[in-house]
Design brief:
Layout: H1 13-36, E1 39-44, E2 50-55, E3 60-64, E4 68-73, E5 76-81, E6 84-87, E7 90-94, E8 101-107, E9 110-115, E10 118-120
Parallel strand pairs: 2-8
Antiparallel strand pairs: 1-2, 3-4, 4-5, 5-6, 6-7, 8-9, 9-10
């Protein structure tokens, strides 16, 4: 039998634990989304070749002119003109007009340039 002198106390601990769990779940979920965000796009080179670009949350920039295409990705600067591929001011290869598909990918290991099916070594 319950008397009027007895009071029911609702424990706040389970409620606080649930709130902390919820906020931690939101935090880690948001961090996971940011870590797995991928931005994709394309750029067209002066010779008509298409560069497929895939970057993480940092994104990329593209400037297409009649004589060159500049792509900034993961702190690296790529420039493709009518004859040369230049990375961070260093020529790394020649443009081959028969190559029409190029891939530029940034991930946690750095940037990878695949040109004509071959991975191009980038300057350090």
């Amino acid at each position: 039998m319950i008397t009027t002198d007895q009071k029911h106390h609702l424990s706040i601990a389970p409620i606080l634990a649930a709130l902390v769990f919820f906020f931690l779940l939101l935090l880690f979920g948001g961090l996971w989304v940011l870590a797995n965000v991928s931005m994709r796009g394309t750029a067209t080179l002066p010779n008509g070749a298409i560069v497929d670009i895939s970057a993480g949350a940092g994104g990329f920039s593209v400037a297409e002119n009649s004589g060159s295409t500049k792509i900034g990705i993961a702190g690296r600067d790529f420039e493709f003109d009518a004859s040369t591929i230049v990375v961070d001011g260093v020529a790394v290869g020649a443009i081959d007009d028969s190559v029409k598909q190029i891939s530029l990918t940034a991930n946690r290991d750095g940037v990878t340039l695949i040109y004509g099916g071959k991975t191009i070594a980038l300057p350090d």
